[in-house]
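FAQ: What does a multi-protein file look like?

Like this. Sequence, then tokens, then the next protein.
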Amino acid sequence: MIVDNKPQHETVMLDGDQLPAFCPNPAMPVWSTHPKVFLDVTKTGKAACPYCGTVYTLKPGAKVHAH
């Protein structure tokens, strides 16, 4: 039996109107909270939370609105 020991991180798909991206997001359970961090997904299309590893990715075709 082969066991994969790599941690499995959730991927959250974001649309342009859901920016700025931040973690923990509102869908996460309260018990798993950590300090709130804002993540820049506009440069590469994705970013990972430094605390929990959740990956935030822009949906294909998402339009980033200037603030």
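And here is the next protein:
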Amino acid sequence: MKYTGNAIKYGDNVDTDVIIPARYLNTSDHAELASHCMEDIDKTFVNRVKAGDIMAAGQNFGCGSSREHAPIAIKASGISLVIAKSFARIFYRNAINIGLAIVECPEAAEGISEGDIVEADLDNGIIRNITTGMEYRTAPFPEFIQKIIANGGLMDSIAKGIIE
């Protein structure tokens, strides 16, 4: 699993209520959720995010509620990968379940700045900041998680018979 994209950077404790505000939880339409992603913390996000971009963040990313709307909104907005110092556990699992690639790598999250070009090879656990030339190591995704993400999420993987 390889990703390359422009970095969009956020700080610590970005909660699910700013990823997708509660006032939009009356829809399950992915495009509608994406159109409001991050609007309470960054009104420019939806106008500048491009397919394949990579989100970098600080500690405790995705804290707050357990709703899947938050990782769905991020993925539907075009973000291909989220790199953070740490994730709220329920957000981490929800992201994997819906097929959003996420990785904890404190050094990379700290070393990536807004606008940097980032390349990640999650099969081998290597993250490169192309802009600065820095390289970071992280644990490669286990094969079963690679399958879930590559096939669009847990339910799609089960429906396709990829995993049981």
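Q: Is there any per-entry metadata?
A: Some entries carry free-text notes. For the entry above: The first strand starts at residue 2 and ends at 9.
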